[in-house]
Amino acid sequence: MILRFGYVSTALALWEASPSRTMTFTNWKKQEEEVRKEKLLYLAEQNLKNTIRILHYNIAHGIDLYRMSSSLVPLATHPEVHWDFMSPLNKLFQEIGTLVQQHHLRVSFHPNQFTLFTSAKEEITTNAIIDMTYHFEMLEAMGLHRDANINIHVGGMYGNKLDAIARFHQNFVKLTASIRKQTTLENDDKTYTAEETLQICEQQRVPFVFDYHHHFVNHGNDNWEELLPRIFATWGITGKVPKFHLSSPKSEKLIRAHSDYVDMEFALPFIKALKDYGKSADIMIEAKAKDQAALQLVGSLSKLRGYKRISGGAVEL
Description:
Order of helices and strands: EHHEHEHEHHEHEHHEHEHEE
Number of helices: 11
Strand order of the largest sheet: 1-2-3-4-5-6-7-8
Shape: globular
Structural class: alpha/beta
């Protein structure tokens, strides 16, 4: 079996390579119309070009797993800012997609926590659909809309978890079938446990992304190792190996915050459980040190008996 590791958004080893440069709506309003357009286009171009730089860095270092920034296009979904970013940026989107496909990389998006489908307020669901559509249209421009995933959380509880789950099922199907097909759900660190999220995934027929750190904080009565057959089964129709999230707490007091690197003592029970299950998996590292944390963890694992490093970002067990 093979475990591949990746990271989120920014390669810290690269100079000035942020793919998330943005502009506030307040600043946008202060600019004249032509200046607004030029500024937004410039920032989006820089974000996409830096994404291409990061992908080349990943290829060179053997890191096949990468989560792209959701902020590639500044103010893309703001209701008062309507600008055509697809036409002028189409070639850059295509270049990203070509790199990903040629080098068999696995990429994804993770919209923010406000993209949810459990609210009773219609406007929140409407905004979630707008945001999911924005992510999907970027994947379409890259030619990755049938492959890459958009990962979200279930959402809030609003005082009654059963009612909120019922609303999720009612609202989630308002997304187009093509977007739902690329969506994955993740357990969170406060509200929806792994078991609860998995049940929703099974009902909606979407893959489940298990987050080990979130489970550590918000585990309910779940014994997560017993969930592995069901977790893997949710990925069956995709033809992909399951994806997991891994980070470790910053401290005993800041238990929900992510540390700079992944603590091996914290991570090993998770890694060993996957090893015992015996099937390959992809693991997204959500540590603050990004690429450096992923590479360090793979290096540390490769020193253990039974773990052979086969690339910069992968080990064979």
